[in-house]
Write a structure and sequence with these properties.
Layout: H1 9-20, H2 37-52, E1 56-59, E2 65-69, E3 78-82, H3 96-111, E4 120-124, H4 138-144, H5 149-154, H6 163-170, E5 185-191, H7 196-200, E6 204-210, E7 213-221, E8 225-226, H8 238-256, E9 261-270, E10 276-277, E11 280-288, H9 294-305, E12 308-317, E13 320-321, H10 324-336, E14 341-346, H11 351-355, E15 361-366, H12 382-401
Parallel strand pairs: 3-4, 3-5, 5-15, 6-14
Antiparallel strand pairs: 1-2, 2-4, 6-13, 6-15, 7-11, 7-12, 8-10, 9-11
Helix pairs in contact: 1-3, 3-12, 8-9, 10-12
This protein binds (2S)-amino(hydroxy)ethanoic acid and manganese (II) ion (2 copies).
One manganese (II) ion (MN) binds next to loops.
Length: 403
Amino acid sequence: MTSELRINGERLMASLYELGAIGALPQGGVCRLALSDEDREGRDWAVARMQALGLNVTVDAIGNTVGVYHGLTNMPPVMMGSHIDTLATGGLYDGNYCVLSGLEVIATLKDAGMRLRRPVAVAFFTNEEGSRFQPDMMGSLVFQGGLALETALATRGIDGVTVGDALRQIGYDGPASVGHNRVDSYFELHIEQGPVLDEEGLAIGVVEGVQGISWTEFHLQGVSNHAGTTPMRLRHDAGYVTARIGVFARQLAQELGGDQVATVGHLVFTPNLVNVIPDTVTLTVDLRNTDAEALRLAEQAAYEEGITVSRNMLARFEPTPFALEVVELVAAQARLRGLPSRRMPSGAGHDAQIMAAMCPAGMIFVPSVAGLSHNINEFTAPQDLIAGVNVLLGAVVQRADRA
Ligand code: HGY
Ligand code: MN
Ligand code: MN
């Protein structure tokens, strides 16, 4: 029965384009920053789809939203989840694809008149991207109990607004409690956001875990001075130290090799004027697959330049393996459907790595063309998107109906 079940591909694609129209950018792509008006619009759209499916919808105190399709028992649900907040330059698929796939899986079960032994849930978590408020995966961290609700609500974003105020502003400071949820298992279907599946011509990634993540924000205090009259020997140039950190980060990644990556993605100079030696610089270093060595990079450069440096740990996640039972289930479903697949780690962070602390969790990847993501031109072919959802459908049905 399960292997014959197929989702409605047209309905899935239509929902992707419909949600993608909310916060659409003029040159393509989407901007629905966490807890913005656009995020509220996207949330309202997704909640309306949950209600149209007759799901029991709850919103918790950090805005995580869960729709439950009841089962034959009231055992803990098998959950499909991800996020619908995006970067300022987000693509159509990152996060949204899984939430819409969860809705499609439940719609397919409904069409088939199927109720499973366990309930099946679809969830979107607040602020997965971490662009406006850090850390990323904030909502699932609070859901799982890994971050105190009060700490999350008090977090101030890059625009100075607190999570609590922004949440109230969009009306998603929900009544459901956090940190005490029962979830049988968690599945996240996601675009790979890297080049592996596309380069190897594979349809499915059977994800074995997520690499570690370290986000550090540095504040460099230099001495602002005249760019023309200040001799080099008298300078304390925070801009020069910034450049050194960027070079160190790249060299660190090259020295360590393997999956090590390092990125300077956020950079703010003051006064940011062509003829003024910078007074301060704020920059972030994103390191993955290693311990946070960012401090070493900054301190070494700053010491030599006579700059004071302070740092703020924005996010720090250890490498997270997924539950073998879930990994095997995903691999078996890919085989059952004749889809070429491989086992692999995730380079990107996901809510699944947070949920793995509270229940067996796993992920399914589909190819990203040219490995592009966190870019308005991210693209995955419809047949790959549909194949991924059929693997999710099979895995969830098997998991929810098991004895
Ligand atoms: O940064 C990440 O890996 C995720 O997109 N938040
Ligand atoms: Mn994502
Ligand atoms: Mn992302």
